[in-house]
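Regression report. Comparing outputs from two consecutive submissions.

Submission 1:
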Amino acid sequence: MSDSLFDPEDDAATPLEAEEREQLIPTYITVRSELNEAEQINIADADRWAFSRKRNVLDARFLRALHKRMFGNVWRWAGQYRTTARNIGVDAYRISTDLAAHIDDVRFWIENETYNADEIVARFHHRLVQIHPFPNGNGRHGRMAADLLAKQLGVERFTWGSKSGADSKTIRDDYVAALRSADGHDIEPLMKFVRS
């Protein structure tokens, strides 16, 4: 396993552009493990903030603020939509409109009880990650946003594979496989994964 700061071998991670990598805030970070630790501390703080009171997760401004809270102590671009193409996601110019349409869809699903709460939350998460609005951190952001929506809908936060007893690499592989199945319009593996 490489501890290179920006590992090009990790095909499940969103690669950063050179100018995005230059926007790393902590100057002490030289290896991936230090970056992961700094991001995790920032995410834990954001989790406490996000769940401290009722939030309207179905709001694009809030979703940007959440990303900034999750990564703002580590990356200068936190909370800003990406402006370049990625190995996943819609074209950058479509992010705002696709996200607005997705939020409208989720509101419709809730108002019309199109799906049960867990499926609404799973579909919300999947499409949010599929849009891939930010330079990086989209999966982690999407999971926290989904958990906030779950709370808003009166159901428990998802466990995201943590009850499976598997190691973190297996959980990540299962998560990516479930998202890819959902890309192919099979939501069942993601539905199973989020409560495993």
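Submission 2:
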Amino acid sequence: MSGIITRRAVLTTGALGAGLVLSGCDKIAEQPGFRKILFSGEKINQGLQRALSARTALAPEFRPDQMSPIFRTNGNRNPNTPDYNAMAGVQFAGWKLQVGGLVTRPLAISLAQLRAMPARTQITRHDCVEGWSAIGKWRGPLLGSILKLAGVRDTARFVVFTCADLMGGQPYYESIDLIDAFHPQTILALALNDAPLDVGHGAPVRLRVERQLGYKQAKYIMKIDAVASLDGIGKGKGGYWEDAIGYDWYAGI
């Protein structure tokens, strides 16, 4: 695509400057030195992407007739823990979303309260890091509206999501910065294609941050915390897959 500066092109340019070629070099990519260069390049890419587009630039939205006939699940399909199964068994009647960290008013919001909040509906494309895409219709309150209710402190820079599914015995986690948290298309989705979220797609609530890849769209959200730094989150890279296998923290598309 001539004339378009892509995320991959930025990373490749940074790697070439260090004498490395990205395409097809899996063995090189496994080298610790390569990963150090890659992560430093990611920060450059993040800054370039945001410098080249308005901070409130919207991801493409689609018509109803463009929706995919099947919307595949990504990541875990069912937390299948005793606690989660008990909540799902009563349609999440006792579930509450905890909002805390660097906020002035910690919240505990029920599913009924979330459903009563003003909501945004958007038909967007989900791009999975595994190479597939699907277009679906999502509905839910703006994450920014919930953060405003909680009163995010000036010292906060990131929002961390803790989920019901377990990875290695610990709750799955993911994070975004406040720029994406307050983006007008970043929602806590309660419905997909006009139906309440099912278990496979992240019930009772999942994140939709539409300008990033699918692994950033945390499912089964239990808790949201505003934090000043990612240093104390997992291994410090901001998310489970980022820590486990080196996925980029900023997965912009």
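Expected: both submissions complete independently.
Actual: both completed, but the second showed a warning that disappeared on reload.
Relevant detail on submission 2: Confidence is low (pLDDT under 50) at residues 1-42.
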